[in-house]
Input
Amino acid sequence: MIVVTGAAGHAGANLVHALAAQGRPVRALVHLDRRALEGLDIEVVTGDICDPDSLLKAFEGAEVVYHLAARISISTDPWSMLEAVNITGTRNVVEACLRCGVRRLVHFSSIHTLTDTATDIPVDESNPLVESRHYPPYDRSKAAAEMEVRRGIERGLDAIIISPTAIVGPHDYRPSHFGEALLKLANGQLPALVTGGFDWVDARDVVRGAMRAEEIAPTGAKYILSGHWLSLREVAKMTEELTGIKAPGSIFPMWLARIGAPFITAFDLMARRRPLYTSVSLQALRGHRHISHQKATQELDYHPRPFRETLIDTLKWFEAAGKLTRPLKSEKTETS
Output
């Protein structure tokens, strides 16, 4: 039995679909939203990582647990909220794994847990975890969650850690923060861009790497699962080629975007929209440009697909879900 927390999220949905496709018995732990799991031959249970009793019930008889449930934030959410879900929730997962005799825990962390290095030195698994309040609350909460897993390993838990970069791909039901930005681009609803970019990775490649790690990685191993760095301008131009919707003409320099971020965030909140350009998201777009997945390539045979293929498949999925205002241009691609 494979248990997946956060099964209804973006990465969780792709993971559950991949596990089900292999015919493995899956028990999906969900809180409220179940859209991502409809039609799958799996067991779905209601639970909450903040409720230890619900975890004990969900993990009963489990051989492997994939822990993906987390509060993802690109704003300055209150620390107490992030602590309750990302830190205490992970502590609860570790404790439930130990009490239920789970053979292996696969913990999904984030590239944001790692400190930046000099621009000419790639970020890899040896980078220390963030601690300083210079880093956003989300980053520090996920770093602290990793420490909870490490403490579990010291108590005898067989656990490994996966650190993906910015995940893109199909089965993005809610959608994710970048999924929402991509939809705005594809529908001509994003008025402007900012300089900067990020390392984007296909959700399916992350899942494939995590599943391979579950099979062969030694206890305590950690793997960065990254993809390809592209600027927002490059992503926008590629989206324009695929949709026919003209990319935003205005590109604000980062210094100006940082000044305007608090006002844009406040305006979006007043309009009951989820903010996309925040001080935290702008900080992310300035860092982690060179990220190495060499360890995963050597040990897991991990090879991320080209970003264009990911973008095509993601837009096709959004189109099939009825989220695009006009059909995509015809272009052949292979989906795997």
About this structure: The radius of gyration is 19 Å. The longest helix spans residues 79-100. The mean pLDDT is 89.
